[in-house]
Amino acid sequence: MKLIKSIKAHLDSIKERDPAAKSYLEVLLLYPSVHAVAAHRIAHWLHSRKRYFLARWFSQVARMFTGIEIHPAATIGKALFIDHGMGVVIGETAEIGDYVTLYQGVTLGGTGKDQGKRHPTLGNYVIVGAGAKILGPIYIADSSKIGANSVVLQDVRANTTAVGIPARPVLKKAVVEIEEYKNKKIYNNMVI
């Protein structure tokens, strides 16, 4: 029963995040994200029981069918949604929190310079845009957004949007309080 509730929660989260999802059946049968994550759960289970070859074989078969490569040792939280999915790579020591959304072409990879923990950690509710590369043992905190085609090489704080090559936080502009402009004429005599 717990497995069915978990699958239903995963499908619900995908339907909430993807306006193109028409039905549960469509998501379950036709979304490569669902298949890749399900295959990863099996491969991860095998890997944790030191069945390395079988785990890797399982992940490679899933890659062949979905275009999504997830190393069996990677740790993935609840309800990961990989939209479109083709070309997504998730490295061996990557850790992904709950309700994360990745778009096509995302890489959670290493730089080749690190030993041990070599791949990024993503907090909960993170969104990573198409083609973004997050490299090295860095931390992307909860509710952050990574812009499409960005290259992230440093930690990103919670509730921050990072864009560019290399990615940098987008500065939020100060909110102008409407009270400051009440009864003042601005722009062609328009009055607020």
Topology:
Blueprint: H1 2-17, H2 24-30, H3 32-48, H4 52-66, E1 68-70, E2 75-76, E3 81-83, E4 88-90, E5 95-96, E6 101-103, E7 107-109, E8 121-122, E9 127-128, E10 133-135, E11 139-140, E12 145-146, E13 151-152, E14 161-163, E15 168-169, E16 185-186, E17 190-191
Parallel strand pairs: 1-4, 2-5, 3-6, 4-7, 5-8, 6-9, 7-10, 8-11, 9-12, 10-13, 12-14
Antiparallel strand pairs: 14-15, 16-17
Helix pairs in contact: 3-4
Summary?
The protein has 192 residues and is α/β, with parallel strands linked by helices. It is 29% helix and 21% strand. The radius of gyration is 20 Å and the shape is globular.
Characterization of the model:
- The chain is of the alpha/beta class.
- 29% of the residues lie in helices and 21% in strands.
- The chain has a six-stranded mixed β-sheet with strand order 3-6-9-12-14-15.
- The radius of gyration is 20 Å and the shape is globular.
- The termini are far apart.
- The mean pLDDT is 90.
